[in-house]
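Give me C-alpha coordinates for this 126-residue protein.
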Amino acid sequence: MTDDPLQKALAVLDAYMAGLNRGDEVAVNAACNFPHVRIAGGKVVVWPKRGAYRLDDFRARAGDGWARSRWDERTPIHVGPDKVHLKVKFSRFRADGSSLGEFETIYIVTRQDGHWGIQARSSFAS
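Here you go.
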Protein backbone atom coordinates (compact mmCIF):
# COMPACT_ATOMS: atom_id res chain seq x y z
CA MET A 1 0.00 0.00 0.00
CA THR A 2 1.11 3.52 -0.70
CA ASP A 3 2.38 5.99 1.90
CA ASP A 4 0.08 8.67 0.43
CA PRO A 5 -1.99 10.18 3.30
CA LEU A 6 -5.12 10.51 1.16
CA GLN A 7 -4.97 6.86 0.12
CA LYS A 8 -4.43 5.84 3.76
CA ALA A 9 -7.45 7.92 4.83
CA LEU A 10 -9.68 6.45 2.12
CA ALA A 11 -8.59 2.93 3.08
CA VAL A 12 -9.55 3.67 6.70
CA LEU A 13 -12.99 4.86 5.60
CA ASP A 14 -13.40 1.67 3.53
CA ALA A 15 -12.42 -0.46 6.54
CA TYR A 16 -14.81 1.48 8.80
CA MET A 17 -17.76 1.06 6.43
CA ALA A 18 -17.03 -2.62 5.81
CA GLY A 19 -16.83 -3.26 9.57
CA LEU A 20 -20.02 -1.31 10.20
CA ASN A 21 -21.92 -3.23 7.52
CA ARG A 22 -20.67 -6.58 8.89
CA GLY A 23 -21.57 -5.59 12.44
CA ASP A 24 -17.91 -6.03 13.39
CA GLU A 25 -17.35 -3.78 16.40
CA VAL A 26 -13.65 -4.66 16.63
CA ALA A 27 -13.08 -3.62 13.01
CA VAL A 28 -15.02 -0.37 13.50
CA ASN A 29 -12.91 0.49 16.55
CA ALA A 30 -9.73 -0.45 14.66
CA ALA A 31 -10.66 2.07 11.96
CA CYS A 32 -10.78 4.88 14.54
CA ASN A 33 -8.25 6.84 16.56
CA PHE A 34 -9.03 7.78 20.13
CA PRO A 35 -10.24 9.84 21.73
CA HIS A 36 -12.84 9.80 18.95
CA VAL A 37 -15.24 12.73 18.63
CA ARG A 38 -18.64 12.96 16.94
CA ILE A 39 -20.57 16.21 16.59
CA ALA A 40 -24.17 15.66 15.46
CA GLY A 41 -27.73 16.31 16.48
CA GLY A 42 -26.68 19.19 18.71
CA LYS A 43 -24.43 16.93 20.80
CA VAL A 44 -20.73 16.27 21.14
CA VAL A 45 -19.88 12.67 21.99
CA VAL A 46 -16.36 11.59 22.90
CA TRP A 47 -15.30 7.95 23.00
CA PRO A 48 -12.15 8.02 25.14
CA LYS A 49 -10.46 4.77 24.10
CA ARG A 50 -10.49 1.88 21.67
CA GLY A 51 -13.40 -0.44 22.40
CA ALA A 52 -15.62 2.38 23.71
CA TYR A 53 -17.36 2.84 20.34
CA ARG A 54 -20.34 0.47 20.56
CA LEU A 55 -22.35 -0.65 17.55
CA ASP A 56 -25.50 -0.84 19.69
CA ASP A 57 -25.21 2.95 20.13
CA PHE A 58 -24.82 3.37 16.36
CA ARG A 59 -27.84 1.16 15.60
CA ALA A 60 -29.96 3.16 18.07
CA ARG A 61 -29.43 6.34 16.06
CA ALA A 62 -29.05 4.91 12.53
CA GLY A 63 -32.77 4.68 11.83
CA ASP A 64 -35.55 2.16 12.05
CA GLY A 65 -34.49 -1.00 10.26
CA TRP A 66 -30.95 0.08 9.35
CA ALA A 67 -29.13 -2.75 7.59
CA ARG A 68 -26.24 -1.14 5.73
CA SER A 69 -24.60 2.08 4.64
CA ARG A 70 -22.48 3.18 1.68
CA TRP A 71 -20.21 6.06 0.75
CA ASP A 72 -21.64 8.33 -1.94
CA GLU A 73 -18.88 10.95 -1.89
CA ARG A 74 -15.42 11.27 -0.33
CA THR A 75 -13.80 14.53 -1.37
CA PRO A 76 -10.54 15.70 0.21
CA ILE A 77 -10.60 19.19 1.70
CA HIS A 78 -7.09 19.29 3.20
CA VAL A 79 -4.35 16.67 3.04
CA GLY A 80 -1.28 16.77 5.27
CA PRO A 81 1.32 14.17 6.21
CA ASP A 82 -0.52 13.14 9.41
CA LYS A 83 -4.08 14.42 8.94
CA VAL A 84 -6.72 14.43 6.21
CA HIS A 85 -10.02 16.35 6.19
CA LEU A 86 -12.71 14.82 3.97
CA LYS A 87 -16.15 16.02 2.89
CA VAL A 88 -18.22 12.87 2.72
CA LYS A 89 -21.76 11.91 1.96
CA PHE A 90 -23.19 8.54 2.87
CA SER A 91 -26.52 6.76 2.56
CA ARG A 92 -28.24 4.40 4.97
CA PHE A 93 -30.53 1.58 3.86
CA ARG A 94 -32.96 -0.96 5.26
CA ALA A 95 -32.57 -4.66 4.41
CA ASP A 96 -35.16 -4.32 1.61
CA GLY A 97 -33.00 -1.64 -0.05
CA SER A 98 -35.25 1.29 0.85
CA SER A 99 -33.46 4.46 1.86
CA LEU A 100 -33.20 5.79 5.38
CA GLY A 101 -31.51 8.94 4.12
CA GLU A 102 -28.40 10.63 2.78
CA PHE A 103 -26.11 12.55 5.12
CA GLU A 104 -23.27 15.04 4.63
CA THR A 105 -20.37 14.89 7.06
CA ILE A 106 -16.83 16.11 7.62
CA TYR A 107 -14.40 13.35 8.65
CA ILE A 108 -10.96 13.98 10.11
CA VAL A 109 -8.57 11.07 9.70
CA THR A 110 -5.28 11.20 11.61
CA ARG A 111 -2.09 9.22 11.99
CA GLN A 112 -1.27 8.48 15.65
CA ASP A 113 1.85 6.48 16.38
CA GLY A 114 1.80 5.18 12.81
CA HIS A 115 -1.90 4.16 12.92
CA TRP A 116 -4.32 5.86 10.55
CA GLY A 117 -7.84 6.19 11.96
CA ILE A 118 -10.95 8.35 11.97
CA GLN A 119 -10.42 10.82 14.81
CA ALA A 120 -13.45 13.08 14.50
CA ARG A 121 -16.57 13.73 12.48
CA SER A 122 -19.17 16.43 12.29
CA SER A 123 -22.38 15.18 10.77
CA PHE A 124 -25.89 16.23 9.88
CA ALA A 125 -26.94 12.62 10.55
CA SER A 126 -28.68 11.75 13.80
